[in-house]
Amino acid sequence: MNGKYILERFGFQAKEEPVSIYPFSPVYHIQGENTDFIIKRTQNLQKYGNQVMHYIRVLREKGILVVTPVPLEVENPQLIDDVTYVVYPFIEGKKYSGTQEEIYEAGKLLGKIHALSPEKNAFDLEPYDVFDFDIEEVIESMEQIKAHAATNNLIIACGLLRQKFLEAVARQAELQTHGLPSVATPYDFKANNLVYTPAPFLIDPDNASWVPRIFDLALVLLLFHNEMATAPSRMFTAEEWQVFLDGYHVYVQLSEMEQAIWPAVLEHVFFG
């Protein structure tokens, strides 16, 4: 879709076609007279977009540092050719660099967000429903992995990996029936979605969903450093993860059941 057209729908003018600052989705940094803005794609208004916007506004009202739609003379967010876009303020701050203080404060922020969640899905956010892996998908994935490994001269224990896939498939029904505590959460809580001001400020809440909170934590462990040039190109170390949890536990204590099934959850989210 033409980026100039999107800007114009929100009342902004551009002499040239804007260039997205994010390679996987249209995200435009717009310089205003007194402040800067971000225009980006968000959840479809016809499904869960309005619910997400209501949820993040409530988070902001309760003291969470999170972007909310900028008041404009036109509708914001709005549906443009069946795709929903939103204008957020551009947040000035420092990018994550992997210090223990940054990790601890990020853990505190997620813990506070989880602690503020209602016990039921009162915001009507999209519920987590990835419990439908099947054997055919395992076989298909393994063929793709083998082909990729052969092309790049990689040595992968495909037999062991296939076994782990199958074990995850077998356990998913059990995880679904555990009655795990669920929370309203941004569900994409990672370093490239935070700006330190110096407190962490959440700049991309658009994937907000209703998710088992232990699943949300597993995703953080697996992906927190993903897509972030200034972050270490690896998962958290055991020490870093403990620092994150120390911050998280300021607001939330996991149940014994959540702690007991952590290894199974981690595998489930990894293979998902």
From TrEMBL:
Domain Aminoglycoside phosphotransferase: 26-226
Protein name as it appears in the record: Phosphotransferase
InterPro entries: Aminoglycoside_PTrfase, Kinase-like_dom_sf
